[in-house]
Every structure is written in C-alpha cells, then in structure tokens.
Amino acid sequence: MGPLRRWRARDAKVRYIVRVSGRAKPVTALLVALVSLLTACQRKPALPALPVIDLSAFQPGVREVIEEAARRAHAEPMNAAVVAKLGMTLHAHDRFVAAVVCYRRAAALDPGRFEYLYYQGAALSADGKYADAVAPLAHAVGLQPESKPARLKLADALMEAGKRDDARRAYQAAVAQDGTVAAAHYGLARTLTGEAAITEYRKALEIFPDYGAAQFALASEYRKAGRFADAERTLAGYERNRTATPPLEDPALAEVFALNVGATGLLRQAKALERQGQLAEAAAICERTVQQYPKFEQAWINLISLYGRLNQPEKLENAYRQAIAIAPASADAYYNYGVFCYQSGRFDAAREAFEKTVELDPRNADAWNNLGSVVERTGAFERAAELYRHAISARPEFRLAHFQLGRIYANKGRNPEAIAEFEKCAGNNDEQTATCLYALGATHARAGHRDESITLLKKAREQAVSHGQSTLVASVDRDLQKLGAVR
C-alpha cells in the first residue's frame, strides 16, 4: 500500500480559503482584481481525486494490469487519456464506483470528449445508478448524436430511473434514427401498452427472432389482451432464448471490454475471434484462460468445440475430461463431445453423449435431433421419429427436425404426415429451401398429386439454380421428365 499512499500525496492540492468580513471599503484596482481572481478560483469545481484501489481483491493477472494503469494515472494525474485508461481498466473488471471517479476526472480535464461521458454513464448504469447515469449519457448524446449505443443507453437509463415519458421520446428518437435496431423497438414497446406495445415487440422480433426478453414481454401483452394461444406459442420461444439478445456494434465499450484480462474477459475475446473464423487464435486464448483459471468450466467446454474443428482429438479428449470433472452436470460439455464423436464416426460414443445431454437439458433441441440421427443409423426408425418429435417439441420451428421426421414418414409411405412436415420447413428462402421443396414435391408425386408436385418441383428448381446447387437441379429435372412436365 506504500506506493499508492505516495501517489495520493503527490496528487494533493493546496487549497486557499479567503474570508472577507466587515463593511466594504474603497480598495485599489489591483486588490479588486486579486479578490475577483481568487473568488473565481473558489467557484471552479475541484477535480475528483484519483480513487484508492485495494489491489489485494484481484487475481494476480488482473492485479498487474490495474496496478500498471494506476501507476501511470498517478504519475500523470492531469492527463485525461491516462486517467480515463485507468477508469476503463477498472470498468472492464466491474469496479464501477472507482471507474466513475476516473471518468469524471477525465471529463473535467477534457469536457468535449464523448467517450469519457459515455463511459461514465455506462458504468453508472452497470452499477444500477440509472438516475445518476442520465446526465452524462444525455451530454454524450449531445456531443455525438449519431451514436446508436449512447442513445439506447440514455433511453434505458431514463426508463429504469422511472422517467417513462422521457424514455419513450428517447426510444422514438432511436427508432427514427435507425428502424432496424431491435433493442430500440423493444425499449419503445416497454413504454407503451396494449396493441401499440404488441406492434413494437413484434417489430423487435421480426428483426431478431430469438430475442428472449421481447418474447417474454410480448407473451405478457398477449395474455392481457386475452390472446392465450399466441401467448403460449410466444412463451415457448422464450424458454429457448432466455438470454439471447440482439447484437449492437459498440466500438467505444468494446475498447473497455478488451481490457478485461479476467476469465470472462478472455473468454469474450476468444468468442470474438471464433466468430471471425480465427479458431487457432481463439483456442490459444482459451488455453491461456485455463492456465490462469483451471476451474473455469466454460473455457474447457469451448475448447472441446474448438479442438474438434481444428482436428486436434488428443487435446479435445483432455478438455472433455477436464470439463466433466469440474462440472459433471454441464450439458454443453457432453453435447460438444457428442458432435465431435458423431463427426468422427464414433456413433456409440456420440449416442451416449447426446443421451447424457438431453438427460441434463431436456430443452436442447439440437441434442434430441442429433440423437435421432444416431439412432436412425441403426434402423430403429420409429424410435428416431420419436426423438425428432422431441426436438420439435423443444423448438417448434426447428426446420431440420421437421425435415428428418418428414423423410422417415415418406419412406414409410405415410405421405400426408410427410407432406405436413415438409411444408413446415419449405417456407424460407435460403440454401435449404430447394431441398425442402424438392422433398415436398416428390412426396406429392408419390401421393398421386401430379399438378401440386410439378408446381413444387419447378419452385425447387428455381431455388436450386439461384443458389448454384447443380446436383439438385439435375435431380429435379429427372423427376419433372418422369412426370411429363416441360420446364
């Protein structure tokens, strides 16, 4: 604690207090100027002192980073960028109170800098101090009105602070600025009621269909309106997407989060690299994470997936053993391992892993579907169909599960049931649509529905051509020829 104490002493300022009493008397112009100058100095707000930081509360790797940022800030206490960097480092590691002190000092030193005010408001919001966050966020929006994240943070702070009308106007401004931001529609819906709220929640879900919070809120509004079937259907989506939120690019806060060298910060960096396709780099960060935090289960679980895609089976087996030893009830560890075993042709091991996954997480639709695929390979088609139905129950719009189930029905000659399943997966416009339409058209042909079959096969051909699926185009052409249809 010695060095920190010296830094505080070095940062201390000598303060002068001037008291004036008695009746006014004539003074010289020089004295008037001196008194005016001292009075003006008194009125100027004092800079917030740099925060006192208890470094013993941090893990060694985090402690070193914060200690270095603190050393620099105390060495250059009048440098706004250096002081703000200390705030960002503290903010990244969830030390919001100390971070806010740094941001306030940085903003006082450089009042026109958007980031210092935005960071201050973001840290206050993260600490639950929404009413205090409003002023710096409003100032930040004034400095940089084109910032979508700042506008949303301001609207959210107003809403959480109980200023509903102001929040509604702020969300409306955000929607007017960019109507494709799902979070803006969701926030606006929260300030509304009835059909107006339903409309905005639905707009949010059109933009980001897996928006868990919007699904839950929309289900609640449906219930209030007496639309109970709609509410139940929407709530089923929420059960799958409880924590799913739409991404919103926020370069300013990304700089803060990049400073987090704790376990969650490293994992965030690894996920970002993984999304960019840099799998080896992502694995290296996860390896660094488990070296520093050997009991951090999510890093081991992520390594199972990364090693599988990097074709490093020995490392994968070790990561799997570590993950289930630390967290034997982690469904994700078994699921990732099951995917690796399935892709490696180890179907018995894959079956065991997926069975363990659904035992621990009965709502895991992907695990049910994969388990169905493994079982279907053994010829147990009725059991496989049952497993695909489990997948659909967990995720009603699961296209692949509908397709797999429809294929089993079609092969068993259960054409009406097959058609019903294929129809549920043929409505999109993507690379899978042509295959679904082809299966639907072929099943109609088997059922003797020639005209419907020709229409669907022609649609399948159009989709296949648009996506460059030449093999599928050839298959469709053969079927159309058998039906005596002209392309």
Give an account of the 3D structure.
The protein is globular, with a radius of gyration of 31 Å. Among the domains are: 2-43, no CATH class; 263-328, Serine Threonine Protein Phosphatase 5, Tetratricopeptide repeat. It has 27 helices and no strands. The protein has 487 residues and is mostly helical.
What is the fold's blueprint, element by element?
Blueprint: H1 2-11, H2 29-43, H3 60-75, H4 80-92, H5 96-109, H6 114-126, H7 130-143, H8 148-160, H9 164-177, H10 182-190, H11 194-207, H12 212-224, H13 228-240, H14 251-257, H15 263-275, H16 279-292, H17 297-309, H18 313-326, H19 331-343, H20 347-360, H21 365-376, H22 381-394, H23 399-411, H24 415-423, H25 433-446, H26 450-466, H27 470-482
Helix pairs in contact: 1-3, 3-4, 4-5, 5-6, 6-7, 6-8, 7-8, 8-9, 9-10, 10-11, 11-12, 12-13, 15-16, 16-17, 17-18, 17-19, 19-20, 20-21, 21-22, 22-23, 23-24, 24-25, 25-26, 26-27
